[in-house]
Amino acid sequence: MAEQEASGLQVLLSTLQTSRDKDVILNILSVLTDLLSLGTGQRIHYVISKGGSEALLQAFTAAARTEPPDHSTLLPLLRLLARVGQRDRKFGLKVQKAEATDIILSLARRNLGHHLHLTHCLWVLRVCASNVTTGTTLGINGAMELLFKVITPYSKRNVRTVRAAIEALAALLKSKSNSRRAVNRGYLGGLLRLYQDWHHNDVSNNYIYIRRGLLLCLKHITNIQLGRETFLGSRGMEILFTSVQDCLSCKNLDPIITTVTQILRKCYPKEPLPVATVRSSYSFPLPGNARAEPLCEGSEGKWLKGDYESDGEEEAEKDLDNEDVESKEEDYDLETDVNKLRSRPVLDRPEEELGQYEAMCPELSHNFQELESDSEEEKSLEDRTESLPFMPSHFIPSATSVKHPNYRWRNQSVTEMGPDPGQKDFKVPLQSWTKRDRCRWDQTDEKTDIAEAAQDADYYEEEDPARSHVLALRPLPKDAAWYKKMIYPECEALINPSPGGRLESSDIETHLLEKHQGDIPFHSPRFYIARAKRVKSIPDYRDLSFPDFWGHQPPPYSKPMLERKYGVQRDKVLDDVRRLIQPGDVIGRIVFDLDEPSHSSPGAPGCLTFFSKFESGNLRKAIQVREFEYDLIINADVNSNQHHQWFYFEVRDMKLAVPYRFNIINCEKFNSQFNYGMQLVMYSVKEALQGRPCWLRAGHDSCYYKNHYRCSAAAEEGVRGKFYYTLTFSIKFPHKDDVCYLAYHYPYTYSTMMSHLDILEQNRNPKKVYWRQQTLCQTLGGNLCPLLTITAMPESKKRDDLEQFYNRPYVFLVARVHPGESNASWVMKGTLEFLVSSDPIADLLRKCFIFKIVPMLNPDGVINGNHRCSLSGDDLNRQWLTPSSQLHPTIYHTKGLLYYLRSIGRAPLVFCDYHGHSQKKNVFLYGCSIKETLWQAGCMVDTSVITEDVGYRTLPKILDKVAPAFVMNSCSFLVEKSRESTARVVVWKEMGVLRSYTMESTYCGCSHGLYKGLQLGTQELEETGSKFCLGLLILHLKSLPCSEKVMAQATLLLDLEEEITDRAQRSCSNSSLETDDEPPCVEEIDYSTDSYSDGEEDFSELDQEIQECLSCVEGETEDEGATMGQTCSSKALRGLYTSSQPTSNSTALPLCSTALGVYSGFESSPL
Ligand SMILES: [Zn+2]
Question: How far is the CA of 951 from the centre of ligand 1 (A)?
Fold first, then answer.
């Protein structure tokens, strides 16, 4: 049946090519016209597949050669060619093959005076030009001159023809040589004038398509540099910018506004960033002769001098920022070498080196003699600790521990501390800076560490007595009256503001500490200060940021993702362009400059004051652009000239109720969750002092787009990309003259972590929780990288209990290798708090595992405000294959410890590295599987011979059920070549750890589950950390042999089945339609490529144009041929196709249905 129909069409097409009979040809054309005017593009594609284009072209060249040309045949042919041609990807080639380009062109020339005929020719010209080669040929043969003659000067006569000509011209200008020709002939200026004429005269917006057609011409011409230069020289920016202002209020004019915005963005003159160098303000001399930041692969040679102005802009961008970015070429990145995928237990160092790590497993040699020494005091201590409620619990400081730590720090001797039960657990494990180098582990001996802590504290203060005065809290809001009222209404007399209106910071600190309620869970400002004083930073911080000192308490509600306001990006871009058009409005005052503090003018009247020189702070420069608008530049990672993403800074001296606009102008990622509902976070000091100390999602009108700044290749060697992006947002501050902090994500500093560990250690129940904090190593910057061991104390020192203790499997957790991923630290915070908590599940979990945890793998990066790297300028999560003991000590020793565990047959059951993901929503795991990788890569390897334990899937499946933010469908178990040196892949391959994962948490929010539509807060992140622990317990119960006792306890605690099915029901209802990637952004963020986003590929437009033209002329007598053709074909059709029918009443049927009866094979149903 289908074959019959196909042959029916083929007969028609071949008759069309061979017949000389005009009636037959007209009939066939009419049938084809009817056929294609119904139904969809699918039908036309079918005709194309059967050689329709070629047949029509052949008939066309034959008809055009007759003298005089027979327009009754030519017009339907041209219409069909236009409709078929625009859908035929190879049409341009077919036109050339049929040698039809010249014929169309000369036919158009002959019909310059006959607008209907001309319009038909122009349609086909336009379609031909969609092939660049054909377009170029047409350009060489004078097509543009012809078209220009048709469209100029401005006239509203024959608008159909003008429209067709403009659209054909736009198509021709896609060819770069045509664009060059057009510029050289002065057409660009002509097009601009014409656009202005149409814009001014089209008051009631009847000719939007003509105006947009002209804009498309300009858009294509300005794809070449000569075009952009000429456009600027012809005042194109001013003309388009001014004209578009009249259009903004009218939604019908969106196509015009969009195209104008694209042109303006593209032509905005490129500039280097307004900094002396993009290299980080901070540099760090590396040990030995190591080179700072090796050149990125492929970066050399890609960089031509001054090429940020070249035509090369269309180059595809490649983001090398691997773990965070889904590469489009993902599948090509898969590791397909089975030998490389197989476990490869090879040591990267001499075996004797492993011996040193024995000291990092004190739990394996501890004899627990102290278990006998139960005393009444300790019982009471236990009671106290037990009474701490389970998370989210509030830290209840004991009277002695928090109120007077200074007393304790300075005056208490070891013997005084020893016997006091209420204080025994208060040990700030200050470790020796000098001893560490001699022997890293000896201070971990539990019996000496209290003593050492005290000694160190003394020693430390002797060493640098000035330092404690140097580090001071940032001054409070300058409004002294408000401050007095807030802080100490009761003793105003005590306050003597200095002449400058600022209060002595030491006084403030003292008073603040008195005021602090100590009600923020697991936070103590005193501990924070104590820890922060010991931090070693490159800029040698002298200031404490208020939020880190005071603490953050998550608000009781979650914030939904920000809805994107219609046209927000367009408005921002036009506002940016205004700087060029109205330069007089631009203030351009540098108000903050990390490199040249003397060059900035902070505190100038009417402008904000910025600051960022504190732990994790990152702001390099702030420029006041307009009264309430600032351009901000963030600092590159230390010893690097890239990785701009993380920011954290202070801003003060704001006015009330004014929306301030901030633009971070040197972002690098090609897209951002800021385009998909994410907000930054803000902390207000006044709010905090009024009892609301929290980081809140803030900012509106957020968007993220490519800007006009380029990295000058000549100035900066080895830069990986040359584009910059703007993150823009507006903020109304909650108070006048407040001090606020803005950050990319909830900050979590190194000192926050260290003081958190102090508090955890203090609050754990030492009878139940085995806790050891040791130092894994010293970082390059001289900071200590802590290593934790957490498990349950043995039940007793009986042999069986000790055996059980020693034989618990290990779980190894690490976090924050990427400093900008503070979300990872919040997840880790949740894990740690759960692990030491008195929750019975935690208790059981501790009995099942020994946890080894490195909570911050990159302390230096976190301290110095880096986003991605360590002080060596290396991404530490790309160093796991061959870490350097000198340059990557934290990785080197973490790997060493893992090697050691494996060497004693104790490789961990689970390894997990906590990260943050900037491009995706939800929380999910990356794991490793040989089979899944080979399948995904489409490898023909016989995977049946590769045996693989699918146990790697169990934990993510459990988490999908128990952790509300977790989404199984977002997980991936593929092994990519580009990730071969990440923790996950190396631990899997070299240590043979089946369950080796990266856990990614979004910066934004969830698209599934309980938190769908909400942005994640610290509470949800912490919950993820504790639920991860719950997941581990369930994994243990499912996969490992358990003692009856454990099983019984577990059954009591967890109604496992119910828990799992309950969550399963919730999750299966919403996880069925998981899409990994975001839908394309509503507004294009990239304007450099000649994208199809402007609807040029919308076939229906030309179809409609043809249809409108036809219906319009059918009533007129002008097109005699067409009317005649119609009559003819109907008559002929009756003869052709109704002969087999018994009666002739089928003539009453509409023509098309008769025809369709023959060709119903095109679609399932003809009508
Ligand atoms: Zn990461």
Answer: 24
Q: Amino acid identity of 38? A: L
Length of the chain: 1167
Alpha carbons 704 and 726: distance in angstroms, whole number: 6
Distance of alpha carbon 846 from the chain centroid: 36
Percent of the chain beyond pLDDT 70?
Answer: 75
For the cut 80, the answer to whether the pLDDT of residue 1158 exceeds it is: no
Angle between helices 176-184 and 208-221 (to 10 degrees): 100
Give me the phi and psi of 294, to 5 degrees please: -60, 150
Identity of the amino acid at 25: I
- Sorted by sequence, the CB contacts under 8 Å of residue 542 that are 6+ apart come out as 470, 471, 472, 613
Check if the beta carbon of residue 664 is closer than 8 Å to that of residue 651.
no
Tell me how far the alpha carbon of residue 721 lies from the centroid of ligand 1, in angstroms.
20
Distance (angstroms) between ligand 1 centre and the Cα of 822 equals 10
d(CA 906, CA 808): 9
Write out pLDDT tens, residues 969-1000. 999 999 999 999 999 999 999 999 999 999 99
Consecutive H or E run containing 6: helix 2-18
The candidate with the shortest Cα–Cα distance to 127, out of 1102, 851, 882, 956, is: 1102
Torsion sign across C-alpha atoms 747, 750, 753, 755: negative
pLDDT tens digit string along 652-694?
999 998 999 999 999 998 899 999 999 999 999 999 999 999 9
Q: What pLDDT is recorded for position 423?
A: 32
Q: What strands, in cross-sheet order, belong to the sheet with 810-815? A: 769-778, 784-792, 850-854, 810-815, 910-917, 995-1002, 923-926
Helices (H), 301-375: 338-341
| pLDDT (0 to 100) of residue 1056 | 57
> Pairing relation of β-strands 472-473 and 723-732?
unpaired
* Distance between CA atoms of residues 430 and 405, nearest Å: 14
1000 among known catalytic residues: yes
The separation between CA 1088 and the C-alpha centre of its own chain, rounded to angstroms, equals 19
Burial of 825-858, coded b for 16+ CB within 10 Å and e otherwise, reads bbbbbbbbbbbbbbbebbbbbbbbbbbbbbbbbb
DSSP string over 702-726: EEEEEEEEE--TTTSTT-S--EEEE
Going through 634-783 in order, the beta strands assigned E by DSSP cover 648-652, 659-667, 680-684, 696-698, 700-710, 723-732, 739-743, 769-778
CB under 5 Å of ion ligand 1: residues: 818, 821, 915
Residues 750-779: pLDDT tens digits? 999 999 999 999 989 999 999 999 999 999
User: Tokens 């009671």 label which residue?
Assistant: 383
Distance CA 497, CA 503 (A): 5
Q: How far is the CA of 393 from the centre of ligand 1 (A)?
A: 29
What integer is the mean pLDDT of 376-402? 35
Burial class (CB in 10 A: 0-12, 13-18, 19+), 604: middle
User: What are all long-range contacts of 10-14, with beta carbons under 8 Å and residues at least 24 apart?
Assistant: 10/50, 10/51, 13/50, 13/51, 13/52, 13/55, 14/55
Nearest to 786 by CA among 806, 746, 807, 816: 816
* Contact (Cβ atoms closer than 8 angstroms) between residue 188 and residue 227: yes
SS3 784: strand
1068 CA from centroid of ligand 1 (Å): 28
Q: According to the model, what pLDDT value does residue 65 have?
A: 85
Catalytic residue among 650, 1000, 1022, 1083: 1000
What would the pLDDT profile of 936-961 be if each residue is shown by its tens digit?
A: 888 777 766 778 888 999 999 999 99
**Contact, 532 vs 705, CB < 8 A?**
no
Distance CA 1080, CA 1078 (A): 6
In terms of C-beta density within 10 A (0-12 exposed, 13-18 middle, 19 or more buried), how is residue 1097 classed?
exposed
Alpha-carbon distance values, 402 to 117, 490, 516, 635, 762 (Å): 92, 23, 11, 37, 11
